[in-house]
Amino acid sequence: MLSNEQLSEKQREYWKRNIRLIVTLLIIWASVSLLAGIILAKPFSNIMFFEVPLSFWFAQQGSIIVFIFLIFTYAIKMDRLDREFGVEEVILTEEKDSKGDES
Amino acid sequence: MTVEAITLTLVVITFGIYIYIGWWAKVKDTSNFFVAGKEIPAVANGAAIAADWMSAASFISMAGLISFLGYDGTIYLMGWTGGYVLLALLLAPYLRKFGRYTVPDFIGDRYYSNGTRAVAAIATIFISLTYVAGQMRGVGIVFSRYLQVDITMGVVIGMAIVAFFAVLGGMKGITWTQVIQYFVLIIAIIIPAAAISLKLTGIPIPQAGLTFSDIAQRLSQLQVDLGMTEYLAPFQNMSGLNVFAVTLALMLGTAGLPHVIVRFYTVKDVRSARWSAGWALIFIALLYTVAPAIGVFAKYNLINTFNDQPIEQVREISWVEKWEETGLLGLDDKNGDGILNFAEDTSPQNEVTIDPDIIVLSTPEVAQLSPFIIALVAAGGLAAALSTASGLLLAMSSAVSHDLYYRIFKPGANEQQRLKVGRIMIFLAVLVAGYFGIHPPGFVGEVVAFAFGIAAASLFPAILLGIFDKRMNREGATWGILVGLIFTVSMILLMRSVEIFGTESQIIESFLGINAQGIGVVGAILNFVISFIISRSTQAPPEEISQMVEDVRVPKVTKKE
């Protein structure tokens, strides 16, 4: 078992890595939606993506598809991070949930 | 069999399934009643969130609204999907770890204040009430249009069905009926969309038909030729600033809607909360990427059907006749030349008026699909309305029975009493929603502005700061919520005074160029700023609250209650 101090040191590192991942993904989130679909709507109108203007595609199709990838990326990376730091949630089944031991 | 007979059969079958699930899922304790015993699998929760999310308006009205807004329709497309990224990354996992029953639960505990809890509960009730009345209305409209039942009667039937499975099965019954309702509604939208895409572009996948064929360019050109706005060009119908503000307000609002957030309490662990957000968005995106395609196809089809055609010949088309009777489609040969002129709605030359709601509802007929598909669209519309209504009703009743009654007024209440109050409240909520569905007050039409604006300006910042800012305290959060809430509500009331109070003209037109639907962003910014300033000049939160925040941030359970 780790002592309390080591535990909180580890937790701080875990939280820092989590924040870094969130910030990265949110930058992509804003770039494909607010930036590519709205702020750059006019300049991107002149670039064609197949048969529609690029900004139109981002605004009505592309951003939504990227959103899905962002959420799954987060879920997969956090699963890995949880394991690396040994902080996965342990599910207690009814039988062994007698006294609530979860570590 | 006639369309009416098939519709009736489909409606009876689907309603039978919903009732059966309600009976099968009957619950005996509060955990099952409020959060389905926290044992819903991630994929099922994803489908339930999607059905909860996609309302009568998403199903019936959205594609039509987009087809009239053109490029600017993105406010709904990005606005109502982008919020899920915020939910998945910033809120859902931590709220699941917190692991209680409602949104006010978190806000009240985190800010150690029953006053703040009460404000959050009242915001929840108001958001859900505005939202649910529109759903009940939607049920009534589908009944009246497809089965020639009176709107009032339609609302009453809808109320009876929802009351049955929600009172009996609580969140568990609601969740599993929502899973079924998702499949009904998505099939109902995909089949006609694929058929019309194949017909117009030769590609059976609507999303691909939109991107890889020149249909959108042809429509854009056609609109320009007729003196209408260029479909593919941005900011033709709204200013760039408003498109930005409304999109962001809808994103933040989505992440703060109590009936959506509470669905993340129903999964078994933090991991499942993250994954179910992804599944939810996949299921939602199916409709949200198809809707802009339907918008383009239907608009193109309609212009070609009407423009430059002899009015007598157009009137012979059977669906034209039918929709003209309902008053949702208007043909008026103003210049008397016997030929129809299609132009911008506001133009005096325009001879065709179309209600946006027709776009989805008439697609199967316009594409000449079988009566079965037409009936399916009716069942899909009902599924969309009922699933959203049930989620909202639960959010409302839990705010009253759990947050106000149990957590504030009667903390000593036992399991039996709490369950009883929960059931009574959900039943009362159904009655109130039904009443507003039959007699809609002015504010009900402003769902987008009110529900999303309030969620963005009050609940979203408070929850976010509660997780990510350990120093945030009771004083900061409470003032932040109050200022955000009061600012947003009063701005909407002033800008929408015509619809709500019946004044001659808007009391104020906009706030620095931002309209009522986008004002939630300003409210949210105010909330963040006020919270920050006040929290830094008042006492830090007590030690056990810091401990609670630490605990919420890590999936692993470190101490048991």
UniProtKB/TrEMBL annotation, chain A:
Chain ranges passing through the membrane: 21-44, 56-76
Domain Sodium symporter small subunit: 11-88
InterPro entries: Na_symporter_ssu
Keywords: Membrane, Transmembrane, Transmembrane helix
A Pfam family this chain is assigned to: DUF4212
UniProt name for this protein: DUF4212 domain-containing protein
Species assigned in the record: Salinibacillus xinjiangensis
UniProtKB/TrEMBL annotation, chain B:
GO molecular function, one term: transmembrane transporter activity
Record carries keyword Transmembrane: yes
Gene Ontology CC entries for this record: plasma membrane
PROSITE patterns hit by this protein: NA_SOLUT_SYMP_2, NA_SOLUT_SYMP_3
Compartments it resides in: Membrane
Keyword Transmembrane: yes
Membrane topology summary: Multi-pass membrane protein
Classification via Pfam families: SSF
A single GO BP: carboxylic acid transport
Ranges that cross the membrane: 6-25, 46-69, 75-95, 116-134, 146-167, 179-198, 243-265, 277-298, 372-400, 421-438, 444-467, 479-498, 510-534
UniProt xrefs under Gene3D superfamilies: Sodium/glucose cotransporter
InterPro entries: Na/Glc_symporter_sf, Na/solute_symporter, Na/solute_symporter_CS, Na/solute_symporter_VC_2705, Sodium:Solute_Symporter
The entry's keywords: Cell membrane, Membrane, Transmembrane, Transmembrane helix, Transport
PANTHER family associated with the record: NA(+):SOLUTE SYMPORTER (SSF FAMILY) (PTHR48086:SF5), SODIUM/PROLINE SYMPORTER-RELATED (PTHR48086)
Membership in a protein family: Belongs to the sodium:solute symporter (SSF) (TC 2.A.21) family.
Name of this chain's protein: Cation acetate symporter
Organism from which the protein derives: Salinibacillus xinjiangensis
